[in-house]
């Protein structure tokens, strides 16, 4: 049995703005073509009458060749009734390993995103230090930034 993780989907109020946010902050790259999906097969797949989906896939940083993508779509008709909190049941957050958590957090804020909790440093086994923070993109989706280093012997 073949199993392969393919993508994570974000439904956005404005897919173009959200896509641009992930391109600017994380260096994600659009994978053509842009999607403009509608018709009987989309209605059957989604269970929605007259469904119309637009958006694109983004290549995530750190992969070459065959890779999972971030799929950012908007529907012609959407429901906005879910609050995005760190402890909600269901999808929680995207995580990116970065060289400089503080710098990327600042870029997120400059592009219209925000910060959830405090930036912390945590000690892990084997002299490993993690720098971690939760942030939000421009539509409130939660992003974890993480950086890992080994403590130098003193």
Structural overview:
The chain folds into two domains: 7-75, no CATH class; 94-150, Roll (2,3-Dihydroxybiphenyl 1,2-Dioxygenase, domain 1). Helix content is 19%, strand content 38%. The chain contains three helices and nine strands, in the order βαβαβββαββββ. The protein has helices spanning 15-26, 40-46, 101-110; strands spanning 7-11, 29-38, 52-59, 69-75, 94-97, 114-115, 120-124, 128-136, 142-150. The strands form two sheets. Strands 5, 6, 7, 8 and 9 form a five-stranded mixed β-sheet that branches. A four-stranded mixed β-sheet has the order 1-4-3-2, with helices on both faces. The mean pLDDT is 92.
Brief digest:
The chain has 154 residues and is an alpha+beta fold. The protein is built from 3 helices and 9 strands, in the order βαβαβββαββββ. The chain has helices at 15-26, 40-46, 101-110; strands at 7-11, 29-38, 52-59, 69-75, 94-97, 114-115, 120-124, 128-136, 142-150.
> Which strand-content bin applies to the residues?
35-45%
In total, the number of domains comes to 2
Give start-end ranges of low-pLDDT stretches. none
Give a short account of the largest sheet.
5 strands, mixed
Helix content: 10-25%
Fold blueprint:
Layout (H helix, E strand, L loop, with lengths): L6 E5 L3 H12 L2 E10 L1 H7 L5 E8 L9 E7 L18 E4 L3 H10 L3 E2 L4 E5 L3 E9 L5 E9 L4
Parallel strand pairs: 1-4, 5-9
Antiparallel strand pairs: 2-3, 3-4, 6-8, 7-8, 8-9
